[in-house]
Amino acid sequence: MDFALTAEQTLIVDMVRRFVQEEIIPLEINLDPDADELEPEVLERLTDKTKAMGLFGLDTPPEYGGPEIDMVTRVLIAIECSQHRAGIYTPCYGAFGGARQAQLFEATEVQKEKYLYPMLRGEKRVFFGLSEPSGGSDPARAIQTRAVRDGNNHWVLNGTKLWISGADRADYGLVFARTGGAGRAGVTAFIVETNWPGFNVARVVHTLRSAKYATEIQIDNLRVPHENILGEEGGGFAIANDRLARQRVPYAAECLGAAIKAHEMATEYSKIRETFGATLSARQGIQWMLVENEIDIRAARLLVLDAAAKSDKGLPFRTESAIAKLVCSENGFKVIDRSMQIHGGLGVAKDLPLERWFREMRIRRIGEGPSEVQKHVIARDIIGGSLR
Amino acid sequence: MKVLVPVKRVIDYNVKVRVKADQTGVELANVKMSMNPFDEISIEEAIRLKEAGHAEEVIAVSVGVQQCQETIRTALAMGADRGIHVVHDGDIEPLVVAKILKELVDKEGPSIVIVGKQAIDDDSNQTGQMLAALLGWGQATFVSKVEIEGDSIKATREVDGGLETISVMLPAVLTTDLRLNEPRYASLPNIMKAKKKPIEQFTPVELGVDPSCRIEILKVAEPPTREAGVKVSDVGELVDKLRNTAKVI
User: Which one of B77, B187, B191 has the shortest CB-CB distance to A52?
Assistant: First the structure.
């Protein structure tokens, strides 16, 4: 078994690492510690560079103009891209291309023209409206937003969506609503424009993330044209399942990038910080924290690369991607917590990125499927699996 | 015309260099190595000459251990066309590198050799000048601007107290200064192509060059740590300290 990177992957990692060190980190010196956006002209200067590097649109399939990279390389890039203050939720402030709305790749040609391509070009912003006050982990059961057919050409939607990121800044997005009975087959995905009457952002929900907040959406008699159904009626959950499992893998890898950086910072700091006549690095209590960081990072890295490699080989990787998401977010959080502890008071100051990583990594243990739901998926696969 | 660009594998500029415990050199084990930043500027300039239609081919050369191939691949990923690796384990001095480059120039017949003005590890700043002398070519050192004008080069040099613009007949050796250009990032298509680009290998002996060193390194030491300053209460005390403690006035 060979875990070594190929010559190409080594060059790609070097190139991205350098981009982060030379283009992104210097910018952050002058940004608000919680910033998650760049001035449009600054972002444009950076996207010009990522386009010249041939890496713009990392999550765009090659047939839509994205780079031809496999999932292992995508993971290696994700680990590098997230090694800066805003890196967990906005790797490189979006310089490598837009949001991941994998479902829109399943749209019809007409829908693609109207909704997918403007998003890929970075002209339009998109939200994803799945979770409701009744829950987000088991949406097939939880969804109570209703869509009722009104004549041949329209549907009327009513309900509430919660924890929806960026709906107040989006141009359009997906709203999952019940068109049939209970369970998966009763849910349909609609493409909804945010300026249509009946679509209201009721409030902003402030969370641990200072920069980006979630929203609550109130949907009152929102009329949606029939042609805005994405996929089949009753097929809301069938669309893009594979793509969703796939995007969980770089999501996991992004947790790792910040952890690696935090560990590096803690290691460096422990060597210069002296207490009671010796450096922190000379204290066994601190050494063991650094050792645990190292082991947590290595274990998570191998697991996320394993998920990526299985996906590249066309093997089933649902269990692997659940394990990767669980371990990267849980280990990432522990690493950042220890690194913060080693930094003492500095660790909680906004002068350093650790406090932002701490808050945002805490959310990663819940977002994109909480650890317990990942365990549920893994358990189902273990218990349902055949004997080896 | 062809452009030859030597690229040196050095400790990455982000790495904090540490002296080995036995003071025979600096620690290289598990240290990130990269292309000398001045050589990146050289590669960038060579690729720009090619893009502007002045050059047909850019050849990247590295002298040293097996891993120098990685440095050559980086140059290929930026856009160089092919590589030459002169394999040598152990220390190597500027004069030996200059002799090796001369042999390669005789073989390849480039019109321009673009050399970084110095490498960030030993800061010798000798190879380009020695090469020009061995070849009997003109040279423009520390260039911050290069324009091809027929069969000569107009080069702006960074000299003490200002800029000097000179004209050098081709063929010529250029050595690059920091402000000549901003090197591009490698690109995914070039990284993929780099695998297929050829890297020829030679040993110094095959090129007729004796690689042995003429300089013996006796000792490598850390620079002395800076001591904390002192505050003075008034001008009188300052003058006294300058005169009697620092002895500078």
Answer: B187
Determine whether the interchain pair B73/A11 forms a contact, defined as Cβ–Cβ distance below 8 Å. yes
- What is the pLDDT averaged over residues A87-110? 86
Mean pLDDT score across all residues of chain A: 91
Residue B14 at interface with chain A, using a CB cutoff of 8 Å? yes
Residue B19 phi/psi, 5-degree rounding, is: -80, 140
Domains of chain B and CATH, by start: 2-245 (3.40.50.620)
| Token pair of A379 as six digits | 């358990």
Which residue, B152, B145, B202, B190, is CA-closest to B172? B152
Instruction: Name which of A11, A21, A54 is nearest B74 (Cβ-Cβ).
Output: A11
Helix H or strand E segment including B165: strand B162-169
Element containing residue B60 per DSSP (H, E): strand B57-64
Catalytic residues of A: 368
Residue A31 reports pLDDT greater than 80? yes
- Give the mean pLDDT of A335-357: 96
In chain A, % helix, strand, coil (3-state, to 5) comes to 50, 15, 35
Instruction: Give the pLDDT confidence of A164-218 residue by residue, as tens digits.
Output: 988 998 999 999 999 998 888 899 999 999 999 999 999 998 888 877 778 999 9
Contacts of A7 in chain B (CB under 8 A): 70, 73, 194-195
Question: Which residues are CB-contacts of A258 (< 8 A; sequence separation ≥ 6)?
Answer: A82, A83, A87, A88, A332, A336, A353, A357, A360, A361
What pLDDT digit, counting tens, does each position of B11-35 carry?
Answer: 999 888 999 999 999 999 889 999 9
Q: Smallest Cβ distance to A49: which of B70, B185, B188?
A: B185
Residue A69: closest CA among B192, B164, B197, B231:
B192
pLDDT tens profile B133-177:
999 999 999 999 999 999 999 999 989 989 999 999 999 999 999
Residues 6+ apart with CB under 8 A from A205: A162, A163, A213, A214, A215, A216
pLDDT tens track for B191-217:
999 988 999 999 999 999 999 999 998
The 10s digit of each residue's pLDDT in A271-315 is 999 999 999 999 999 999 999 999 999 999 999 999 999 999 999
Place of tokens 């999501």: A251
Question: What is the overall mean pLDDT for chain B?
Answer: 94
- Is the separation of the CB atoms in B116 and B147 below 8 Å? no
Q: What is the maximum alpha-carbon separation in chain B? A: 71
H or E element, residue B174 = strand B172-176
Helices (H), chain A: 7-19, 25-28, 40-52, 71-81, 109-111, 117-120, 139-142, 241-272, 284-312, 318-343, 345-348, 354-364, 371-384
Is residue B187 less than 8 Å (CB to CB) from chain A?
yes
Interface test with B, best of A11, A20, A269 (most B CBs within 10 A): A11
The complex's ipTM works out to: 0.81
Among chain A residues, the shortest Cα distance to B35 is held by A14
CA B72 – CA B82 distance, rounded (Å): 8
* Cβ within 8 Å of residue B113, ≥6 positions away: B3, B4, B5, B6, B101, B105, B128, B131, B171, B172, B173, B174
